[in-house]
């Protein structure tokens, strides 16, 4: 067990089976170090870690134990809201099983890292099932102070979020600098050999619409980056409002790539950075 750096003022953990479901609710507040792992059989695993002068938050995990359609893969949901002062937070999610004969392989991953000498917040959830990883945020709460998903401020901060599919292709959004940044990312998905970060059509499972769906705003002096890599092609949605432009691939490993790098001083925003690949 990792050493606790300072006393956690309040940590409550409940693991309650309800109607064949396994539910875990964890809360923390204080200063120092805290981590928690939620393992849902052989279907999915989530991990959260934080350390700082001030830390607080809540983690909720649910293994539905539902085995829909008899595919031997349960639905699993994890959600974290957390805040940190002068420290960092890390949240990872892994899809470990799949109905491979119909939907291809497992191995999808999403991660979020926020580090700052000031303050940071995240509000993020992930759901996996027999077909895909679906990280849709509509209706989840609490949100960050700005009502979004990731934010940080300070004289030095970084926000790093990414998602990959079973082939290891994926996308990353990165913000860093001195000042403040806020990222809204209402949803993303990934499967066997495809991924979609913030460029989804109208869909269920707490996703919404793709226009004004993945946004960034920053002030001070900083950088904003979006990277993506895929074998067969990428579709980029920059201020798209339903329109996209394509980057072709030839099927070889990472033959289609996209790299956006913006440096700014003052205030700058990106109304839509959504991207998808296959």
Residue runs with pLDDT of under 50 for 5 or more positions: 1-19, 202-211
Content of β-strand: over 45%
Mean pLDDT metric? 89
Number of strands: 15
Element layout with pairings:
Elements lengths: L7 E11 L2 E20 L3 E20 L12 E20 L4 H4 L5 E20 L4 E4 L13 E15 L5 E16 L1 E4 L4 E3 L16 E17 L2 E4 L8 E4 L7 E15 L4 E3 L1
Antiparallel strand pairs: 1-2, 2-3, 3-4, 4-5, 5-6, 5-7, 6-9, 7-8, 8-11, 9-10, 10-15, 11-14, 12-13, 12-15
Would you kindly provide a written description of the structure presented here, covering whatever features stand out?
This protein has a 15-stranded antiparallel sheet that branches. 1% of the residues lie in helices and 63% in strands. The protein has one domain (8-277). The chain starts with 7 loop residues before the first strand and ends with a strand. The protein is mostly beta strands and 278 residues long. The protein has one helix and 15 strands; from the N terminus they run ββββαβββββββββββ. It has one helix at 100-103, and strands spanning 8-18, 21-40, 44-63, 76-95, 109-128, 133-136, 150-164, 170-185, 187-190, 195-197, 214-230, 233-236, 245-248, 256-270, 275-277. The protein is flat and about 50 Å long.
């Amino acid at each position: 067990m990792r050493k606790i750096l300072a006393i956690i003022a309040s940590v409550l953990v409940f693991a309650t089976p309800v109607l064949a479901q396994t539910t875990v609710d964890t809360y923390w507040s204080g200063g120092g170090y805290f981590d928690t792992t939620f393992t849902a059989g052989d279907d999915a695993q989530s991990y959260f870690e934080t350390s700082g002068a001030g830390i607080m938050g809540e983690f909720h995990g649910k293994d539905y134990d539902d085995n829909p359609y008899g595919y031997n893969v349960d639905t699993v949901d994890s959600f974290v809201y957390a805040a940190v002062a002068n420290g960092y937070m890390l949240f990872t999610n892994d899809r470990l099983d799949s109905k491979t004969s119909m939907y291809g392989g497992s191995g999808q991953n999403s991660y979020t890292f926020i580090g700052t000498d000031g303050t940071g917040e995240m509000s993020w959830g992930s759901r996996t099932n027999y077909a895909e990883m679906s990280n849709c945020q509509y209706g989840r709460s609490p949100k960050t102070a700005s009502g979004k998903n990731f934010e940080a401020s300070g004289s030095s901060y970084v926000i790093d979020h990414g998602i990959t599919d079973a082939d290891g292709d994926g996308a990353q959004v990165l913000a860093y600098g001195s000042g403040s940044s806020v990222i809204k990312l209402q949803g993303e998905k990934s499967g066997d050999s495809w991924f979609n970060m913030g460029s989804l059509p109208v869909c269920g499972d707490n996703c919404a619409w793709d226009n004004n769906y993945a946004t960034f705003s920053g002030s001070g002096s900083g950088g904003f980056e979006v990277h993506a890599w895929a074998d067969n092609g990428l579709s980029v949605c920059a201020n798209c409002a339903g329109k996209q432009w394509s980057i072709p691939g030839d099927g070889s490993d990472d033959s289609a790539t996209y790299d956006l790098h913006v440096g700014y001083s003052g205030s700058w925003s990106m109304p839509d950075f959504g991207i998808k690949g296959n």
